């Protein structure tokens, strides 16, 4: 959100006004990714000939990789993971293979259990050594089921279970068909989270915070304990100098409540009563209801939105702005409550002075956000109209099949993408995912204005299979307006942003 003219955005490779001028979208799992060939199954062949890559594209991808080296918290293992991922795999083939491995494993386990019960003292024979992949040629080892399929009947080759090659570090182990993050070791996750938190604290604890490094570190997510101060810094609300922060907070909070004293009593004046009435109607429609419908929270949101509308007459209040208050308020409230689920936190137990500070901080950070996308909310909302057209052009370039399918069934992008732009996808994903997504948006110089466009395109690519299966206008539109994201978590958002 904060502008940084000297920093060239790594995801934007051309000077064209149209973001779709990029030639390809690189997938997080299988780069490079050609969406026109997405549905084509790979045919078995003794050797897959490699296609020469132009020097320009190699340079682009290497620069992309270096700029997102921490997007998946892999640290120094990124190069080896990317080398391993360079071997193109089709998702359908991978999933089918993984299921066959699981079935074969279950059958072998069932056959071995009676024997183990009868011979408890028998010492198991050592397993044969797994095939070793030379360090200079990183390739995926075939699974057991693939070995059976490729071996002729009666061959004497021993069954070798799929294991990690000794040449790969432990963090580079890939589990096929397992997308649930709970499958990972809880201790490994806690160590990783603790390490990231230490990095943030070291960066934030210095006398002058390096905002460029903070953006890089925040791109792949901000730990909850330091999210509030990180957002305030990335928004440009707090100065980088630690000594200046208390005075800045005090001054800005005092300034906000001066606005309240000066403007808020005019909410019932004839010239402003329509604005206030619309805000009063929209707030109960927000979610999470358990938080928003608390009287103190409702009053806070009414004041924030009304003061912003009065001080920005070019746009005033527009429906959709109200949703953008929630992430800031929730994140800043988390600093002062021990509730694990802040969605249901009892705000009445929070001290009054703390709530006043949270309200003022929310107002100023919301103002910074809206200043960057104000053309989304001026008369006729030209910013949204333009972004929807840019999204249409981008999807046409990166996934022509999806674009053509929508066009054939007369589904117009404005019919579903208007809300994506107006509410910044807040109505499409759970609040926890919105907060994680905003970690990345805040780390981009124009995250809410331009990077959001690429996230919307990634959503369409993510759901391309379901979109192509729908053969009816109503079903297509209903699906696009109600994406199945209710159970998404941080990992799903990381994957979406990782595609970019």
Automatic annotation (TrEMBL):
Basic residues compositional bias, start-end: 103-114
Region span, Disordered: 103-191
Biased composition (Pro residues): 123-133
Any Pfam family hit: RabGAP-TBC
Keyword Phosphoprotein attached: yes
Coiled-coil parts of chain: none
Residue ranges occupied by any Rab-GAP TBC domain in the UniProt entry: 221-445
Biased composition (Low complexity): 141-171, 179-189
Source organism, top-level taxon: Eukaryota
Function: May act as a GTPase-activating protein for Rab family protein(s).
GO molecular function term, any single one: GTPase activator activity
Transmembrane segments: none
Keywords associated with the record: GTPase activation, Phosphoprotein
The protein's name in its UniProt record: TBC1 domain family member 22A
